[in-house]
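Entry for the shared binder. Reason: the reviewer on the internal report wants the predicted structure included alongside the sequence.
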Amino acid sequence: MRKNYIWGLLILLVLTAPSCVYHKQLVNFRSDGERTASVPVEILNELEPRIQPNDILNIQVTSYDQEAAQPFNKIRTGQNNNMNFGGNNSGLNPQTLFGYTVGYDGYLDFPVVGRVAVAGLTQTEVRNLLFTLIQPFLKDAVINVQFLNFKFTIMGEINRPSTYNVVSPRITILEAIGMAGDLTLYANRATLLVIREVNGIREYGTVDLQSPELFASPYYYLSQNDVIYIEPLRQRIATVADPAQRIIGYVTAGLSILSIVLALTR
Protein backbone atom coordinates (compact mmCIF):
# COMPACT_ATOMS: atom_id res chain seq x y z
CA MET A 1 0.00 0.00 0.00
CA ARG A 2 2.81 2.37 0.94
CA LYS A 3 4.63 1.51 -2.30
CA ASN A 4 1.55 2.30 -4.39
CA TYR A 5 1.15 5.57 -2.53
CA ILE A 6 4.73 6.58 -3.34
CA TRP A 7 4.33 5.65 -7.00
CA GLY A 8 1.15 7.67 -7.19
CA LEU A 9 2.92 10.70 -5.77
CA LEU A 10 5.75 10.31 -8.28
CA ILE A 11 3.31 10.19 -11.19
CA LEU A 12 1.52 13.25 -9.84
CA LEU A 13 4.87 15.04 -9.58
CA VAL A 14 5.69 14.30 -13.20
CA LEU A 15 2.32 15.52 -14.38
CA THR A 16 2.24 18.72 -12.36
CA ALA A 17 5.87 19.82 -12.26
CA PRO A 18 6.59 22.85 -14.47
CA SER A 19 8.29 22.06 -17.76
CA CYS A 20 12.02 22.65 -18.04
CA VAL A 21 14.22 23.60 -20.99
CA TYR A 22 17.30 21.41 -21.12
CA HIS A 23 20.81 22.53 -22.02
CA LYS A 24 21.01 20.45 -25.19
CA GLN A 25 17.89 22.18 -26.51
CA LEU A 26 19.66 25.54 -26.37
CA VAL A 27 22.89 24.52 -28.14
CA ASN A 28 23.40 25.12 -31.85
CA PHE A 29 25.73 23.29 -34.25
CA ARG A 30 25.98 20.17 -32.11
CA SER A 31 26.26 16.56 -33.19
CA ASP A 32 25.76 13.93 -30.48
CA GLY A 33 26.88 16.44 -27.90
CA GLU A 34 30.08 17.33 -29.77
CA ARG A 35 30.92 20.56 -31.53
CA THR A 36 31.32 20.32 -35.26
CA ALA A 37 34.92 19.73 -36.27
CA SER A 38 36.86 22.62 -37.72
CA VAL A 39 37.45 20.96 -41.08
CA PRO A 40 37.34 23.14 -44.19
CA VAL A 41 34.22 22.41 -46.26
CA GLU A 42 33.65 23.57 -49.81
CA ILE A 43 30.62 25.85 -50.18
CA LEU A 44 28.31 24.36 -52.80
CA ASN A 45 24.95 25.93 -51.96
CA GLU A 46 25.78 29.62 -52.36
CA LEU A 47 23.53 30.46 -55.28
CA GLU A 48 23.10 33.96 -56.66
CA PRO A 49 19.46 35.03 -56.23
CA ARG A 50 17.34 35.07 -59.37
CA ILE A 51 15.15 38.00 -60.26
CA GLN A 52 11.42 37.53 -59.86
CA PRO A 53 8.35 39.52 -60.93
CA ASN A 54 7.74 42.58 -58.74
CA ASP A 55 11.42 42.88 -57.82
CA ILE A 56 12.86 46.38 -57.90
CA LEU A 57 16.32 46.79 -59.42
CA ASN A 58 18.73 49.68 -59.30
CA ILE A 59 20.54 49.78 -62.65
CA GLN A 60 23.28 52.36 -63.17
CA VAL A 61 25.15 52.81 -66.45
CA THR A 62 28.43 54.71 -66.42
CA SER A 63 31.00 55.41 -69.08
CA TYR A 64 34.15 57.40 -69.77
CA ASP A 65 31.80 59.72 -71.66
CA GLN A 66 29.26 60.27 -68.90
CA GLU A 67 27.10 62.51 -71.08
CA ALA A 68 26.65 59.64 -73.53
CA ALA A 69 25.62 57.35 -70.66
CA GLN A 70 22.96 59.71 -69.30
CA PRO A 71 20.10 58.48 -71.54
CA PHE A 72 20.47 54.98 -70.08
CA ASN A 73 19.92 56.09 -66.48
CA LYS A 74 16.49 56.59 -64.97
CA ILE A 75 17.71 59.56 -62.92
CA ARG A 76 20.00 61.63 -65.09
CA THR A 77 23.42 62.58 -63.75
CA GLY A 78 23.26 66.09 -62.35
CA GLN A 79 19.61 65.74 -61.36
CA ASN A 80 20.30 63.67 -58.25
CA ASN A 81 21.51 66.67 -56.30
CA ASN A 82 18.39 68.61 -57.24
CA MET A 83 15.92 66.00 -56.04
CA ASN A 84 13.90 67.30 -53.10
CA PHE A 85 12.11 64.63 -51.09
CA GLY A 86 10.38 67.17 -48.85
CA GLY A 87 7.36 69.35 -49.46
CA ASN A 88 5.07 68.06 -52.18
CA ASN A 89 7.44 65.17 -52.96
CA SER A 90 7.45 63.77 -49.41
CA GLY A 91 5.21 60.88 -50.43
CA LEU A 92 7.53 59.67 -53.20
CA ASN A 93 9.18 56.30 -52.79
CA PRO A 94 12.94 56.42 -53.52
CA GLN A 95 12.71 52.83 -54.79
CA THR A 96 10.25 53.97 -57.47
CA LEU A 97 12.41 56.94 -58.41
CA PHE A 98 15.71 55.10 -58.67
CA GLY A 99 14.57 51.55 -59.38
CA TYR A 100 13.10 49.54 -62.22
CA THR A 101 10.15 47.35 -61.25
CA VAL A 102 9.99 43.94 -62.92
CA GLY A 103 6.46 43.38 -64.20
CA TYR A 104 4.38 40.28 -63.61
CA ASP A 105 5.31 39.22 -67.14
CA GLY A 106 9.01 39.26 -66.17
CA TYR A 107 9.92 42.33 -68.24
CA LEU A 108 11.24 45.75 -67.29
CA ASP A 109 11.29 48.90 -69.44
CA PHE A 110 14.83 50.17 -69.90
CA PRO A 111 15.67 53.56 -71.47
CA VAL A 112 16.64 53.51 -75.16
CA VAL A 113 16.71 49.69 -75.25
CA GLY A 114 13.03 49.10 -74.48
CA ARG A 115 11.45 46.03 -72.86
CA VAL A 116 13.91 43.51 -71.49
CA ALA A 117 13.04 40.04 -70.13
CA VAL A 118 14.89 39.66 -66.81
CA ALA A 119 12.80 37.28 -64.68
CA GLY A 120 14.73 34.15 -63.81
CA LEU A 121 18.11 35.80 -64.45
CA THR A 122 20.78 36.60 -61.89
CA GLN A 123 22.24 40.07 -61.38
CA THR A 124 25.31 39.01 -63.36
CA GLU A 125 23.20 37.71 -66.24
CA VAL A 126 21.15 40.92 -66.36
CA ARG A 127 24.34 42.97 -66.38
CA ASN A 128 25.75 40.94 -69.29
CA LEU A 129 22.45 41.12 -71.19
CA LEU A 130 22.20 44.89 -70.83
CA PHE A 131 25.83 45.31 -71.83
CA THR A 132 25.09 43.46 -75.08
CA LEU A 133 21.97 45.55 -75.75
CA ILE A 134 23.68 48.86 -74.95
CA GLN A 135 26.93 48.18 -76.80
CA PRO A 136 25.66 49.43 -80.21
CA PHE A 137 25.04 52.82 -78.56
CA LEU A 138 27.79 52.91 -75.92
CA LYS A 139 30.96 50.91 -76.41
CA ASP A 140 32.60 51.26 -73.00
CA ALA A 141 29.52 50.95 -70.73
CA VAL A 142 29.96 49.86 -67.13
CA ILE A 143 26.73 48.49 -65.69
CA ASN A 144 25.85 47.94 -62.05
CA VAL A 145 22.73 45.97 -61.04
CA GLN A 146 21.48 45.78 -57.45
CA PHE A 147 18.32 44.70 -55.65
CA LEU A 148 16.42 47.52 -53.94
CA ASN A 149 13.77 45.35 -52.29
CA PHE A 150 15.74 42.35 -51.01
CA LYS A 151 14.02 41.56 -47.73
CA PHE A 152 13.09 38.72 -45.41
CA THR A 153 10.56 38.28 -42.61
CA ILE A 154 11.37 36.48 -39.38
CA MET A 155 8.77 35.67 -36.74
CA GLY A 156 7.96 33.34 -33.87
CA GLU A 157 10.44 32.69 -31.04
CA ILE A 158 12.79 35.53 -31.98
CA ASN A 159 13.60 38.60 -29.91
CA ARG A 160 12.84 41.17 -32.63
CA PRO A 161 10.35 39.71 -35.11
CA SER A 162 9.97 41.94 -38.15
CA THR A 163 10.57 42.36 -41.87
CA TYR A 164 14.17 43.36 -42.61
CA ASN A 165 15.49 45.04 -45.76
CA VAL A 166 19.09 44.25 -46.64
CA VAL A 167 21.50 45.75 -49.13
CA SER A 168 23.40 42.60 -50.05
CA PRO A 169 21.50 39.62 -51.48
CA ARG A 170 24.07 37.29 -49.90
CA ILE A 171 22.64 36.71 -46.44
CA THR A 172 22.50 33.51 -44.42
CA ILE A 173 19.83 32.36 -42.02
CA LEU A 174 22.33 32.84 -39.17
CA GLU A 175 22.85 36.47 -40.15
CA ALA A 176 19.07 36.92 -40.30
CA ILE A 177 18.74 35.53 -36.77
CA GLY A 178 21.53 37.84 -35.59
CA MET A 179 19.81 40.88 -37.13
CA ALA A 180 16.62 39.94 -35.29
CA GLY A 181 18.32 39.78 -31.88
CA ASP A 182 18.85 35.99 -31.67
CA LEU A 183 16.41 33.24 -30.75
CA THR A 184 14.53 33.18 -27.47
CA LEU A 185 15.25 30.50 -24.87
CA TYR A 186 12.08 28.67 -25.92
CA ALA A 187 12.92 28.50 -29.64
CA ASN A 188 12.88 25.06 -31.23
CA ARG A 189 16.30 25.10 -32.88
CA ALA A 190 15.71 21.79 -34.65
CA THR A 191 12.87 22.88 -36.93
CA LEU A 192 13.08 26.40 -38.32
CA LEU A 193 10.53 26.75 -41.11
CA VAL A 194 11.48 28.69 -44.25
CA ILE A 195 8.70 29.70 -46.67
CA ARG A 196 9.99 30.61 -50.12
CA GLU A 197 8.35 31.62 -53.40
CA VAL A 198 10.08 30.50 -56.61
CA ASN A 199 8.60 31.07 -60.07
CA GLY A 200 5.08 31.49 -58.70
CA ILE A 201 5.32 28.37 -56.52
CA ARG A 202 5.43 28.49 -52.72
CA GLU A 203 7.73 25.92 -51.14
CA TYR A 204 8.44 25.00 -47.53
CA GLY A 205 11.72 23.83 -46.03
CA THR A 206 13.08 23.22 -42.56
CA VAL A 207 16.47 24.09 -41.11
CA ASP A 208 18.04 22.35 -38.12
CA LEU A 209 20.44 24.66 -36.29
CA GLN A 210 21.69 21.75 -34.21
CA SER A 211 22.82 19.69 -37.18
CA PRO A 212 26.19 20.00 -38.95
CA GLU A 213 24.22 19.58 -42.20
CA LEU A 214 22.87 23.10 -41.65
CA PHE A 215 25.54 24.67 -43.85
CA ALA A 216 24.67 22.42 -46.80
CA SER A 217 20.95 23.21 -46.63
CA PRO A 218 19.43 24.98 -49.67
CA TYR A 219 17.78 27.30 -47.12
CA TYR A 220 21.03 28.32 -45.40
CA TYR A 221 21.36 31.21 -47.87
CA LEU A 222 18.16 33.24 -48.03
CA SER A 223 16.30 34.35 -51.13
CA GLN A 224 14.36 37.59 -51.44
CA ASN A 225 11.02 37.64 -49.61
CA ASP A 226 11.80 34.52 -47.56
CA VAL A 227 9.69 34.07 -44.42
CA ILE A 228 11.34 32.36 -41.43
CA TYR A 229 9.16 30.98 -38.66
CA ILE A 230 10.69 29.70 -35.40
CA GLU A 231 8.26 27.47 -33.58
CA PRO A 232 8.27 27.24 -29.75
CA LEU A 233 9.32 24.29 -27.64
CA ARG A 234 6.58 22.49 -25.76
CA GLN A 235 7.94 24.00 -22.55
CA ARG A 236 6.76 27.39 -23.79
CA ILE A 237 3.21 26.45 -22.78
CA ALA A 238 4.10 26.89 -19.12
CA THR A 239 5.11 30.53 -19.71
CA VAL A 240 1.88 31.58 -21.42
CA ALA A 241 -0.56 29.74 -19.17
CA ASP A 242 -2.79 31.60 -16.77
CA PRO A 243 -0.67 32.89 -13.82
CA ALA A 244 -3.04 31.36 -11.29
CA GLN A 245 -2.72 27.99 -12.97
CA ARG A 246 1.05 28.26 -12.90
CA ILE A 247 1.04 29.06 -9.17
CA ILE A 248 -1.21 26.07 -8.53
CA GLY A 249 1.22 23.92 -10.54
CA TYR A 250 4.20 25.04 -8.47
CA VAL A 251 2.34 24.61 -5.18
CA THR A 252 1.07 21.17 -6.17
CA ALA A 253 4.54 20.10 -7.24
CA GLY A 254 6.00 21.35 -3.95
CA LEU A 255 3.39 19.54 -1.91
CA SER A 256 4.01 16.37 -3.90
CA ILE A 257 7.73 16.52 -3.19
CA LEU A 258 7.07 17.16 0.50
CA SER A 259 4.68 14.20 0.64
CA ILE A 260 7.26 11.90 -0.96
CA VAL A 261 9.95 13.02 1.49
CA LEU A 262 7.64 12.42 4.45
CA ALA A 263 6.60 9.02 3.11
CA LEU A 264 10.18 7.88 2.58
CA THR A 265 11.34 9.06 6.00
CA ARG A 266 8.69 7.19 7.96
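Summary line for the report: The radius of gyration is 28 Å.
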